[in-house]
Design a protein that fits this description.
This protein is of the alpha/beta class. It has two domains: 169 residues, Rossmann fold, CATH 3.40.50.11890; 138 residues, 3-Layer(aba) Sandwich (Rossmann fold). A four-stranded parallel beta sheet has the order 2-1-3-5, covered by helices on one side. The chain starts with a strand and ends in an 8-residue tail after the last helix. Bound molecules: iron/sulfur cluster. Iron/sulfur cluster (SF4) binds next to helix 3 and helix 12.
Length: 331
């Protein structure tokens, strides 16, 4: 019988699902996901975690529980680092331990460590370790790995060309087509972790709401790595958190280059890295005299209040642009 592996649809799913899926399927494994986050998943996760944990981790627990009785393994790699000299947050490092010790009667976890901080080729080692759960054939693992990296590159290209992470996953799955984004009068940069911005339940449909209000939306994933690096060059000291580097680098690049009428930073309540870097982002953006809004989300955030704040923000930047000949994009 075909082995089934469950990939919870939360946290790094939003960035690595195409890579993981292609790799596992290349090994003859059936991949099952937990689908989009909904209220039931949030409630499940909240019920099994302590209050202090950030919402994305609570949601991850909910997704893991949805998969509990459906799969032979749960895929929860320990993502220590995904690039040289930078790290993910401590919650990612401890995620397999938190799940394993929560007494949830989960299937065995595939919790291979991925640490590319010093040696990028450790990714291949991690692939070998994962592959050995399913086959002894090293060449088969290598083939599956190569094919997965190709799929991953295509995914990154789609994102670089303007598809959102979600659209890119749908295109790769043959379910969607790239829109390249709407071309409207206002451009708003929405900064935050991809597993918050692209999870419609956690972000309360923030991206869609902004589009429906007439704004073109840019997220850090759509800004080329070179530009983010250029933005970070303004800092006196390097940052060591991958996602915060991306958020702050995107903000600094956009302040330099222009092209946005306003910036929204979305943070999670209980997120240590967000609380530090969010403060720097806010100071820089306000100093650059760009309209700015900070949104902090948790499981109690209400959709109606968010919609009102977004409407007021869009209204304010539209009036500002019209009144002052602000010029918007490019200034
Ligand atoms: S970076 Fe923040 S939001 Fe993300 S997992 Fe860590 S604590 Fe949670």
């Amino acid at each position: 019988m075909q082995i089934t592996v469950g990939i919870p649809g939360a946290l790094l799913y939003y960035e690595y699902f195409p890579l993981w899926k292609a790799f596992l399927e290349g090994l003859g494994v059936k991949v099952i996901t937990s689908g989009s986050t909904n209220k039931e998943i949030v409630n499940l996760g909240v019920s099994q975690t302590v209050d202090e944990v950030c919402l994305p981790v609570k949601v991850f627990f909910g997704h893991a529980l949805i998969l509990r009785d459906k799969v032979d393994y749960l895929f929860v790699p320990r993502m220590v680092s995904v690039e040289k000299k930078a790290y993910t947050c401590p919650k990612f490092l401890g995620l397999p331990d938190m799940l394993r010790n929560a007494g949830l009667d989960l299937p065995p976890l595939i919790e291979t460590t991925v640490d590319l901080s010093k040696k990028p080729w450790n990714l291949y080692r991690a692939a070998l370790d994962i592959g050995q759960h399913f086959t002894d054939d090293t060449f088969r693992i290598l083939r599956a790995y190569r094919r997965a990296v190709q799929v991953w590159r295509r995914f990154r290209e789609l994102v670089a060309r303007g598809a959102t992470l979600y659209e890119a996953i749908e295109i790769l799955e043959g379910r969607g087509k790239s829109t390249g984004g709407p071309s409207l009068d206002l451009t708003v940069a929405v900064l935050g972790h991809p597993y918050i911005l692209y999870d419609a339940q956690i972000s309360l449909n923030l991206l869609r709401k902004l589009r429906s209000l007439g704004a073109r939306v840019i997220t850090p994933e759509q800004i080329p790595a070179q530009d983010i690096k250029g933005g970070l060059a303004h800092l006196q000291k390097p940052l060591f958190w991958t996602y915060e580097k991306r958020i702050l680098g995107a903000a600094l690049h956009l302040l330099d280059k222009g092209g946005v009428d306003g910036i929204i930073n979305v943070a999670s309540f209980g997120c240590g890295p967000d609380s530090m870097v969010g403060e720097i982002v806010e100071r820089k953006v306000r100093k650059g005299r760009r309209p700015f809004m900070l949104l902090t989300v948790d499981e109690h955030t209400g959709e109606a209040g968010l919609a009102t704040r977004l409407e007021a923000f869009i209204d304010m930047i539209a009036r500002r642009k019209a009144r002052a000949g602000y010029g918007g994009a490019g200034h």
